[in-house]
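Case study.
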Amino acid sequence: MQVGMVGLGKMGGNMAARLRDKGHEVVGYARHPEGRDVASLAELVEHLEPPRVLWLMLPSGDPTADTIHELTSLLGSGDLVVEGGNTHYVDDRQRADNLREYGIGYVDAGVSGGVWGRENGYGIMVGGAAEDVARARPLFEALTPDTGGGYVHAGAVGAGHFVKMVHNGIEYGMMQAFAEGYELMAASDVVDDVPGTFASWREGTVVRSWLLDLLVRALDDDPDLSELRGYAEDSGEGRWTVGAAVDHAVPAPVITAALYARFASRQPDSPAMKVIAALRNQFGGHAVAKAESGQSSDS
Amino acid sequence: MQVGMVGLGKMGGNMAARLRDKGHEVVGYARHPEGRDVASLAELVEHLEPPRVLWLMLPSGDPTADTIHELTSLLGSGDLVVEGGNTHYVDDRQRADNLREYGIGYVDAGVSGGVWGRENGYGIMVGGAAEDVARARPLFEALTPDTGGGYVHAGAVGAGHFVKMVHNGIEYGMMQAFAEGYELMAASDVVDDVPGTFASWREGTVVRSWLLDLLVRALDDDPDLSELRGYAEDSGEGRWTVGAAVDHAVPAPVITAALYARFASRQPDSPAMKVIAALRNQFGGHAVAKAESGQSSDS
Amino acid sequence: MQVGMVGLGKMGGNMAARLRDKGHEVVGYARHPEGRDVASLAELVEHLEPPRVLWLMLPSGDPTADTIHELTSLLGSGDLVVEGGNTHYVDDRQRADNLREYGIGYVDAGVSGGVWGRENGYGIMVGGAAEDVARARPLFEALTPDTGGGYVHAGAVGAGHFVKMVHNGIEYGMMQAFAEGYELMAASDVVDDVPGTFASWREGTVVRSWLLDLLVRALDDDPDLSELRGYAEDSGEGRWTVGAAVDHAVPAPVITAALYARFASRQPDSPAMKVIAALRNQFGGHAVAKAESGQSSDS
Amino acid sequence: MQVGMVGLGKMGGNMAARLRDKGHEVVGYARHPEGRDVASLAELVEHLEPPRVLWLMLPSGDPTADTIHELTSLLGSGDLVVEGGNTHYVDDRQRADNLREYGIGYVDAGVSGGVWGRENGYGIMVGGAAEDVARARPLFEALTPDTGGGYVHAGAVGAGHFVKMVHNGIEYGMMQAFAEGYELMAASDVVDDVPGTFASWREGTVVRSWLLDLLVRALDDDPDLSELRGYAEDSGEGRWTVGAAVDHAVPAPVITAALYARFASRQPDSPAMKVIAALRNQFGGHAVAKAESGQSSDS
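After joint prediction, the assembly is written out as follows.
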């Protein structure tokens, strides 16, 4: 089928390629001229046969919001927007309501798989009305792995991004579990072969997983990770997961701890721990002591 | 090669069977008569050609300790004990030192894989002196998956059980990450198909893993887990992991949170939360109020 | 000075009484007739000399929002609204912007102290423009303790409720610290006198605090807290604190753990822990087993 | 009464002085000559009238253990040792059993209050047999605050150090709660006066406490804590508290999070977070990427 792909970055570009490999006609648009088929959103809409299907694969936040806003005046009744980026599920609902006034359908699609997806297929989690989802179904089939798995229609609009958000929250927790295990083995004086231990776990164990495979790859190239700093960004979906957990009164200590570990990794000097140092100095009766003085104590 | 297997339960029995399938001669002993080849430890030792190799697969704690104690008077110089149960790595060192005085070798082997191991092979993590490990190597090869993976000699005595302990700690964290994600999706009103979402994640996603496979199996049979109570035991290795983290000053918030969630799941009424309720009542100025009164508040 | 008090519940009623004790003229309005001086917001506004000062002490959310909305048409330029309830700091800003269009000033005041405040004085944390805060200053002086402490002008509009929110977040963490200590002593077999231990801590120790005083009072009446259930509500400010921490990338593991402990205390059966139970059953190779079967295990 | 004080450091020296102020006869011994009354343990024992009472106030671990070992040959039946340092409660029991064979009594006394204790009095938590505790009671009365509070006989041998350990665990949690609140207010752009906010909380609020008083003192001297590094040691009692919680299956998320925050504060570069960075790089398909490259992502 025909689809307009908006955004041709690492994700959008690879997805367009996979869709073409599977026989679909993709008209690509991006702000940067390289690799795009049309030079503007207006031109893209013009090129597509109504009723049109557009797949958005843009950075979350303003780029996606602005594009959807612009599309309300370009698209017409019966057209369909598939939002494949990382939109917050609450925003999905508002956008869908807004587009519906113009007769434009909206489907949210969470996409997992990174650069490996072009070859292996992507995990696709979809939210939207049954008829809208049905129209885009051939695209989902092309993008997911050839085995037929990797696809779910999770619920109404927002459900796709909600479960993608939860997927990423789980991912945070799993990554941190491996990270803590690594640090503990590295800190111990009894384990001589940390990379070999992880490698051995790839078969027969309970923790075997794609993340373990990736960790083994990383340790193959840099056995003690000496080329890396212990610094980790977060992309926002972990924060949203914690926010949703708090909103729903769901205890999520593991996912939250994983998020906070990332926050802490980015602090060259923790303000909170200055307070601890200050209080420990006070125990010693000093008005203020420098951290270097070594006078502080518990009491 | 010839090996004496002590303990023929769910783990030991299956391992003996797998070893025999691979052509090894296993003489099995267990307290319970069913399936054993000899009726006592003494008889077992008598049946084996020196230098003997014995594999212990017993409940951790006293059963293992008592058996090793008894073996010091039965075995002779040049014999080798492989401890395959869940011994704490600190105890391994003491046992090895003790056996060495009798000329008996000691290797600790952490074994992962549960009932699935007989067919798929087990993950085996070994600690001990190179020559001791080498002697038992054919057994490790038979027990691990046929692909050649699943084996590591992690370090000196204790290293095998140390990394198995860490493996289980990581497992706790991964399980809890999935558990929190499940609860959040189930609590949300936007996700209509929680089991289908987990099933879809088995391909193309970052969280694909053996634990996810197991969870999908569980949800296949009981889609809302209504047949289960939210109650989880812990087998001790999670506690040891937290203890080792504290000893080594390694922050392990995720593994610890997973352990504490299990502790809390077993409390019909939390004493700690009674304190919170009591304090909230005090804010309201009541000497003591019943929880039912609804008078308590933050302030 | 003259002030209109809107809301005469446990907090508003006591505050009105303390203001009158200190010589201020309070005109009180509440939905319920008992104790109110006027029968409607309109009548209240009529009774007050312009430029008027109104203090709102209502449940957060709709009651406060609706009242402020109604006041926009009743109040005039130069009047001032002090919002003393638990408004989210982000909403304060929007309300202040909205009222400013009508020439109405807005000050947010976080109030701490519960029912003890009428006698001891309240902690008051204020946000707003300097001139607005100055106008309400006599009220703040009357409400805070006679010692002259207990007051801060923390910043612009929203700052008062922000720091009150953080205050409550800290309170959550402190309460949970005492709660965990209580449970640990109660679980131990070495401590014979848990209430006496807490009582002894009221002097000479590092943990002496008002919360400790309250806990000692509670244990005086119910030494093993047997009259209470381990069930704790949360009033929303803990959630907001976690939300703000996540928004600002501030690791807040203690405050968050305290919040999650409350969430968990309200769950008769944890969905997350059902997942753990399900996975443990899977290790044993059972498709699904009942929790009672005792077959589950780590692996 | 007469007492031998072993250890005349910041704690022991001040306690000796307070005991003398209250009319007790203190014979002091320390390794360092300054301020001591006798030059050896043997001389100390000789100076004291049997039945003797000795108070040990030494660094925990070897110094205390070695001294108690030496005293077994110097003291006689009917003498009493009060161990006032930070011994692990499990070790108390072993020591008491050992001393009992020589007819020597043993009382463990947890002491709180730091350098402030000389003037204000100390919190004293005692474990031991009733008759042993009774003999040392005049010392406890002299050391605790003049108000008559600050003392508890918590249970048998070990109970004093157990509750002191828990006290310190609670202290960790409370400190971290304040620390997180500080960081959140400092990170926010709405709070202009963080020190003033803490100062205001000293009266009328729920969080008023001695720790808050100390924090206000610290902020008086260094309002943004710029003279301190965010680095915090731990003295071991927090670790023991977590260990005891794990042993007793008591969920202690707040105390543990406070401990882990200290661990993390001492790491210039977190090995665990290198793993997170490595995995994020892998998502991008790079074999290994430097942290600086900014190519890593969630997926």
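Observations recorded in class. Residues 286-297 of chain B have pLDDT under 50 and may be disordered. The radius of gyration of chain B is 24 Å. We will return to this complex in the next lecture.
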